[in-house]
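Write out the 3D structure for:
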Amino acid sequence: MISLGGDGTMLRAMRLATGGHAPVLGVNVGRLGFLAEVDIPELPAALDAIDARRFTVEARSGVHARFGDAQEAALNDVVLLRSPGHKSAAVAVRVQGEPFVAYTADAVVVATPTGSTAYSFSAGGPIVSPNAEGLLITPVAPHAAFNRSVFLSSGERLDLEVLPHSGDLAVEADGILVGQVSPGDVVEVTMLPGAARVVRLGRTTFYQRAQRKLRLTGSAEHG
């Protein structure tokens, strides 16, 4: 599958390909992205390389959320978001069934490594290598004593409990509104290994793409 656009288009293509076997080649149109592999002028050479089997496939994990009778998968993140006019998101994080931390914030983001450079990053979360396997939990505009991100390994069970003093929360998957939860509800979150597959031609590394996209300066630019 070929995605022509930016990271948002690439995410939609990856969602369409989820569960199938088609890897996605990202062709960047416009602004630089993390997920696209080539720019438009490089497309013919990229297709030749794919034809000649000179490419690799990079697996990207997803995140699955179950709440009430609903369930949803995402490749970037699942977000519990304060509804306009309602109280803040008060969410307890349980790991392997045990209470760990509680956040009071505008939103709580559960991101895959792919999503670590999206909403989670803008909220102050760390950059996570796409080769890492796990889930990153980041509060957005937190106003509680604990305001740091937490990274869980892929096998650990994660439950997000909406606390009694929370407002009603919207649930978003990759920026799409998919439902609502209320105080007392629990969102069960699991990692989906290899949910999507991305074509890599070996032209750039994740860290080179991150450097360009985030305008990071460092020794690599002076070498």
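The mean pLDDT is 91.
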